DNA sequence: ATATCCCGCCACCTG
DNA sequence: CAGGTGGCGGGATAT
C-alpha cells in the first residue's frame, strides 16, 4: 500500500479567498483575516501545515495570548520571519495561482500538447474567473471546521504562561469567529479531549495550551495499548486483506478485552458512566481520544478512517447499520479536522487492493513518552493538574527540542523511525509496560491465542505463497511474518521452537520452525531444500541465531543470544571480552539520549557455553551459506513483500553487505544474526543483521566479518544505531546520530534501506501487534522470560524474545529503568473528573453519556475553580 | 460516484 | 423555563 499525502488544510488555506464579499460579509472577511494571519504565521511552513505544535511552542512568546481574534489589517505588513515572508508571497500569489495550479493539475492529462495546454489554460482562467464570482460566497472550505479551528487556535498561545489563565468564552469565540456556537463546541470538545482546554464553567473554557499535551498523549497511548487497540487495528487490517479468518475471534477477544477493561482512562473522566459503554463512544470527546489512541498505538501511525470508525463503533459494529458507520465517519472527519489543524495528524491515503482509502497519519510528537517521563519526574511531586502545568514549564523546553528534531525530519520515514524509536524506548523497561500489565493475564492469553491463530494462518499462507506467489503489487496482502529462513538441513543451527516450550511465551516467541514435511515442494520452489526446515520469523521479533546448539540448550542459547542487553551491561560478569568490547562501542553509538536500544550480545553471559556456541555458529556461517540465505529472495516468502523492492533489496544486500570474498570467520566475534522484524508493514522486508555489526567495528573489520545478510526494517534501523553494512563505514553516522540513527542515515550507506523504510504500509502487523501487546500487557513475559532467556539475564526484559520495541527501550546503559516512574504519572487523564464525579454528586447514573459528561463537567469546573 | 463535512434540528441537561 | 450542550444525520460541496 502506498500512502499518499493529501493536503487538507493546505487546500483550505490555498483556497482562494476573494476578498470582498458582500454576502459573506463580516464573517468571511473575518475568516480571511484569520487566514492571512495564518499565512504569515511562522508556524506555517511552506507546506502550509496547519498548526504545528512544535513550532507553536517556539513562537509562543510572540503570540499574543488573548488577542482578539481579528486582525483587521493585513498582517502581512510585517512578517515575522523569513518563512513568513515566503508565506506571504505565496499567499499573495496564491489565490489565483493556486487555483490555476489546481486546475492545471486537473487538466494535466490533457496537457500533452502545447495547444491543448493553452486552451486549457484559457479554460482555467475562465474557470478561475467564474470561481471568483462564485467565491463571493464563502466556499465550503472556508467554512471548514479545520480552518475554523486554526482560527480558533490562533487566538491562544500554545504555551500560555501558567499564571495567566486564559478563559475562552464560547459565545465570544463564536461571534468573533463568525460561526455558530455549535461549531465551537465541536472544536472545543476535541481540544478538551487533549486537555488543551478545560471547561471552567458554562460557556466558559480555559485555555491550557500544550503544556500537557505530551502527558496527555502518553496517557492516551497507554490507554490505547491497554485497550488493545493495536490488535484491533490489526484485526481489521487482516480483515481488509481478505482474511476473514478468525478475525472475528480476535475481534471478539479484543472487544471483550475492551469491555472488560474498566474504562478507567481518560474516557472515564470524560465519560464517567463507564457502564454505558454504548454511550461513551458517542461523545465527540471520547471519540477523539480514542481516535488519537489508535494513532499512538499504531505502528504505522496511519489509521484509515474506515478502521477507526469500525473500531470506534464498538462491538455493536456487526452489521451495525451502515448509517451508524456513516455517522461515525462524519464525526471522525470533524475530529480529524481539528487534529489536523493542531498539526497532530495529516491526511493521507492508503491504497490497497480495494483502492484508495482515506486515512490519517500521525505527525504529532512521537517522542512524548520521553518527555513525559522527564516531566513525570519533575511533576511527580505536584500531582495536581494545575501544578502540572507549572511543572510543565520545564518540560516544554525539552519537549520542544525533541519535537523539533522530530519535525525536522519531515520525511515520513524518519518520522516513522522516531515513532518506532519512541515505542521501543518505552518498552521493556519503560514505565508503560507496567501499566499494561494489569490486564495482562487475560490479555496475554488472548494475545497468545491471536498469535497462535496468526501463526497458523501464516504458515498456511506461507505454503500457498510459495506455490502461488502473491502478486507483489498488493503489498498489503503481505503477511505479518517477515521472513522464512531456511535452516540448513544439516546445519548446526539449531533453533528450537521455543514457542512451544513456554506457553505464555508463545506470544513472544518469534520463532517457529516449520517441519520439513509440511511443505517441501513449495519450499523447494523458493529455493528451499527439500526437507529443509525453515524457520518462520515473525515480523516482530529480534533474533539472533546461533549455530550448533545442542538441542536441549538450543532454545536457551538462542534466548541468550537473542536477548537484548538492557541498558546495563552489568548482567553477567562472565561476559566474554568480546561482548564487553562490543557493548561499550555500541553504547557510544547509541549514546544519544533516546538512544535506541543498544544491542548487546548477551550471549557472552556464559563464556564457555557461548564460546562453544560461537564456534559452532561460525562454522555454518560460510560465505556460501550466508549468501545462500541472503540471496534467496525466494526465502522471503512474505506475501506482502513487493517483488520489485524485494528483488532490488536482496540484490543490493547481497552485493553490498556480503563480502563474500572475504568471508572469514573471526573467532573473536562469533557470527550472530540479528533478525529484525519488519515494522508496520515495511515491505515486509527484514534484515538479518550480523550481530557484530552493532559493535563498533571498523569498516574493514566489518567487511572481514562473515556477515550474512541484513534485512532491516526501517523502523528497526532507528532502533539499532549500529546497523550498517560491513561495506559501509557508517559507524560514524550511527554513533553520532543523536536522534538515533535514522533511517535516512543508514540509507546513505545503503539506499536500499531507505527505499524500504519509506513505504510504510498501513498493513497490519497483526502478529506484531499481538506480540507487542502481549508483551506490554503481560507481566508474565518478563517472568516467564527465563525460559527464553536462559536465565542468564538479570532482567527478564532482556529476553531475546522481546520485540524490537523492547529492545529499543533500553536507552541508557544503565539497566535500571524508570519503570517505577511511569506508573506514577498518570495523573492527567485519570485524574479527578471521573472519580469526583462518581464520588461527589454522581446524582444519577443515567446511562446517558450526556448526563455523565455534564456531571463531569461540573466536577471539572469545581475542581478547576478550587484551584 | 464517492469523499468530505457543513449545518442546524432538536433532545437533554443544567441553572 | 431558558439557555447551554452536543448527538445526529440530511444533504451540499469537493474530488
Automatic annotation (TrEMBL):
For this chain's UniProt record, which GO biological process terms are given? negative regulation of DNA-templated transcription; positive regulation of macromolecule metabolic process; positive regulation of nucleobase-containing compound metabolic process; sprouting angiogenesis
**Region described as Disordered:** 455-477, 564-603, 623-644, 774-797, 829-867
Locate the compositionally biased regions of type Basic and acidic residues.
580-595
**A single GO molecular function term of this UniProt record:** DNA-binding transcription factor activity, RNA polymerase II-specific
Q: From start to end residue, where is composition biased (Polar residues)?
A: 465-476, 569-579
Q: Name one Pfam family in it.
A: WHD_E2F_TDP
Q: Where in the cell is it found?
A: Nucleus
- Which of UniProt's keywords are assigned here? Activator, Cell cycle, DNA-binding, Nucleus, Repressor, Transcription, Transcription regulation
Q: Tell me which residues make up the E2F/DP family winged-helix DNA-binding domain.
A: 140-209, 279-364
| Primary site of residence | nucleus
Q: Does the keyword Cell cycle apply?
A: yes
May I have one GO cellular component term?
Answer: RNA polymerase II transcription regulator complex
Instruction: Outline what the protein does.
Output: Atypical E2F transcription factor that participates in various processes such as angiogenesis and polyploidization of specialized cells. Mainly acts as a transcription repressor that binds DNA independently of DP proteins and specifically recognizes the E2 recognition site 5'-TTTC[CG]CGC-3'. Directly represses transcription of classical E2F transcription factors such as e2f1. Acts as a regulator of S-phase by recognizing and binding the E2-related site 5'-TTCCCGCC-3' and mediating repression of G1/S-regulated genes.
The family note in this entry says:
Belongs to the E2F/DP family.
Q: Which PANTHER family match?
A: TRANSCRIPTION FACTOR E2F, TRANSCRIPTION FACTOR E2F7
| Descriptive protein name | Transcription factor E2F7
Q: Which organism is it from?
A: Xenopus laevis
Q: Gene symbol?
A: e2f7.L
